[in-house]
User: What shape does this take?
Amino acid sequence: MNNAKAYSAASATSRLASTTITRREPTETDVQIEILFCGICHSDLHQVRNEWSGVMPTVYPCVPGHEIVGRVTKVGSAVSKFKPGDLAAVGCLVDSDGTCPACKAGLEQFCPGMTLTYNFPDKHLSGVTYGGYSDSIVVTERFVLRVPTNLDLAGTAPLLCAGITTYSPMRHWGVTKGKKVGVVGLGGLGHMGVKFAHALGAHVVVFTTSLSKKDDALRLGADEVVLSRNADEMQKHAGSFDFILDAVAADHDINAYINLLGIDSNITQVGAPEKPLAVSVFGLLMGRRSLSGSLIGGIAETQEMLDFCGQHNITADVEVIPIQKVNEAYERMVKSDVKYRFSIDMASLKSE
Ligand code: NAP
Ligand code: ZN
Assistant: This one.
């Protein structure tokens, strides 16, 4: 067993604070990683504040973080793909049964025996798994990703959740050249969605509530930007989209976007607001439209996404912060004041 420095929340109303946690000694199939950067996902905030209590109640203390990039420090004797000194990344998953139909299909995120990176029963140690707001982590090799060497590491960390969560549904729903694609909410996920849709050749329209993000949306790869609170601007796009990705973290009117879909087209919900969204079925009946969800992505697809980012030089636009600013970052995230992902420089943990 090894001690690791970390930041944890003691309750749904506590600030995150410095702590010491235990990591397991690597088994023969494990990779031990020194964490260099960890992105801050809105899911971290939802879970720290127990906003998903109905689906995944938070167990405290909670060490969040599932956008992890670092350097390998030790490997078990059976590890073949990594050696000490290599760059490595870990996302939202750290284990699965490896044998069920979902795992065989490369959809480990839907395995009934999967383990999430934090707030999930830990198979090795008692209690729950602890995430990436920490200086180290130990993960079985099958869930460790290779990092393209040409990418900035602070901007690579968010690819492990915001990246795969937007890449996967776009690939699944056939986003490609000639398609009109909407991205709702220009936050961490949304801005990655814009980059991917643009790189895949689609005509990209961003829907934002923040006037101040308009120019950024165009710079990130959008062809058009719509202020979603302006009904006239919205109406101009009625019935015209092939695909819309909804990445909004709070309650909002999803029907306004369903009405923008063309015949047989799809809106995928990746945002996970605390409260259920009200859906008017008439919007779905008209045009045989569909509404679906998507959860991160499997391990092979996450590697494919990282390689795609390496080839296209895609990283998240990040504001790098020391871990001591994490509580302030959460407050700003609630106000949609993030351009466009916080990435924690874990060197800042050394002074704790
Ligand atoms: P984020 O960076 O906070 O971005 C969310 C964006 O939603 C904001 O920047 C804002 O964009 C928009 N927004 C916020 N409040 C709004 C409101 N009241 N009405 C309309 N728009 C609003 O969050 P994130 O990290 O991208 O995560 C987004 C959501 O996805 C969260 O719920 C998170 O838990 C979820 N998530 C899901 C998965 C999955 O696998 N499905 C994975 C990761 C995260 P504008 O300023 O442009 O309006
Ligand atoms: Zn996430």
In short: The pocket of NAP (ligand 1) is lined by residues 41-43, 46, 161-162, 165, 185-190, 208-210, 213, 247-250, 252, 270-273, 294-296, 333, 336, 338 (CB under 6 Å). The chain has two domains: 2-161+297-351, 163-293. The chain has a mean pLDDT of 97.
